[in-house]
Amino acid sequence: xxxxxxxxxxxxxxxxxxxxxxxxxxxxxxxxxxxxxxxxxxxxxxxxxxxxxxxxxxxxxxxxxxxxxxxxxxxxxxxxxxxxxxxxxxxxxxxxxxxxxxxxxxxxxxxxxxxxxxxxxxxxxxxxxxxxxxxxxxxxxxxxxxxxxxxxxxxxxxxxxxxxxxxxxxxxxxxxxxxxxxxxxxxxxxxxxxxxxxxxxxxxxxxxxxxxxxxxxxxxxxxxxxxxxxxxxxx
Length: 235
Known about the structure:
Helices cover 70% and strands 0% of the residues. By secondary structure, it is an all-alpha fold. It has one domain. The radius of gyration is 19 Å and the shape is globular. The chain starts with a helix and ends in an 11-residue tail after the last helix. Residues 113-123 have low confidence and may be disordered.
């Protein structure tokens, strides 16, 4: 009976988290900013927030499917994705809220009034701002939901996971995103985040490398404070 209760609780957490993340993404569609960004190379996928949101959503949906149809392969895949999505969600939240509070011009993009490729024109709208409910769904809920799942229903990762797999996965994600955003910028003329646009290549490489190291440290800390699942594993 306790196992059934734990599985139902897990399914409720996973379904509500996935639904809220999907709602947050859909709430952006139809805005002037969305119309403009879709004209650019890479569209919304230029943003690390959106890639992190997608990874968090897929991880959460896999967890929900595993709640309904338990299978070892699903569990293994979900835990592997979690080594990327959970620290990435925390990294995004940390960078976003810190810059939004203290240096908003470095994180909140501006965009031209006329849709089209970014240009040097001074004809710009004010920086695009999300509503607080959407902001929380995109920049707080993924980290909170994944960490709640980890604490309540997952075992800590192994020493081998922390020493080898987590750094390798974080490095692969950094290479992917860095290469992708640099490629998109060659077409768009700017980066999706002002702090990247204002940095020369050596500075951007330092940002990519520093962010990767921070993501690994975040996972080490989260894993270190976790000893056993509070509600038992959902296996």
